[in-house]
Write a structure and sequence with these properties.
Blueprint: H1 8-22, H2 37-50, H3 54-63, H4 65-71, H5 79-89, H6 113-116, H7 139-147
Length: 171
C-alpha cells in the first residue's frame, strides 16, 4: 500500500502518471490539443483533494509555477474546460460505476463503439465545427409569417402634429 502524500505537486504528478497509463492523450483526433486528458485529469484530482471549485483550481494553477511545470502546462485552462473534462472523464464515477469514456485502445487505429458492434457510425448532416448558414423555418415560424398582417410603409398612420396622441375631447 502506498503512503498518502500531502504535497499537491506530488499528487498532481502521480495523477498525471496514472492518467497517461489509463487515458488516451486527447478526446478527439481533431481537437485543438491545448491540454491532454491526463493533464486535465490531474487538475481534477487536485480539485478534489484541495476541495476547490473549478475557478479555484484555475486560480491556484495560475499562481503556482512549480505545479504548472510539473504538469507540463504552457497555459492555464479555463474553468469551463475543467468542467467539460470532468463530465467527460468522470462520467459514472459518482455512481460507483466505470467511466463511460474509452480507455486507451489496444490497436493503433481508434475505434468507435458503433464500429466495435459491427454497425456503421451515424453520419452528420454538417461537418463538425461548421455552422449551418440557412435553415428552413419551423412550422411555428412559417405560420406566424403567413398570418401576420402586413402593413406597407405608405399606409402607416402617423400621429397628429402639435398635440398629444390620445382620445379627443370636445370643447
Amino acid at each position: 500500500m502506498r503512503a498518502m502524500t500531502k504535497s499537491a505537486v506530488a499528487l498532481a504528478t502521480e495523477a498525471l502518471t496514472i492518467g497517461r497509463m489509463a487515458l488516451p492523450p486527447y478526446s478527439c483526433p481533431t481537437s485543438r490539443h491545448d491540454y491532454t486528458q491526463p493533464q486535465l485529469f490531474a487538475l481534477l484530482v487536485l480539485k478534489q483533494m484541495l476541495r476547490l471549485d473549478y475557478r479555484g483550481v484555475v486560480t491556484l494553477v495560475a499562481e503556482w509555477t512549480e505545479l504548472r511545470r510539473a504538469l507540463g502546462l504552457r497555459r492555464v485552462p479555463d474553468h469551463s474546460t475543467l468542467c467539460y473534462a470532468a463530465h467527460r472523464l468522470l462520467a459514472g464515477a459518482e455512481k460507483g460505476g466505470p467511466s463511460s469514456g474509452r480507455s486507451r485502445p489496444s490497436s493503433s487505429a481508434p475505434r468507435s463503439r458503433a464500429s466495435s458492434l459491427g454497425a456503421a457510425p451515424p453520419r452528420r448532416s454538417t461537418p463538425v465545427g461548421s455552422r449551418r448558414t440557412t435553415s428552413a423555418p419551423t412550422t411555428a415560424t412559417a405560420t406566424r409569417r403567413a398570418t401576420a398582417p402586413r402593413t406597407p410603409a405608405s399606409m402607416a398612420v402617423a400621429p397628429p402634429k402639435g398635440g398629444t396622441v390620445g382620445p379627443r375631447t370636445r370643447s
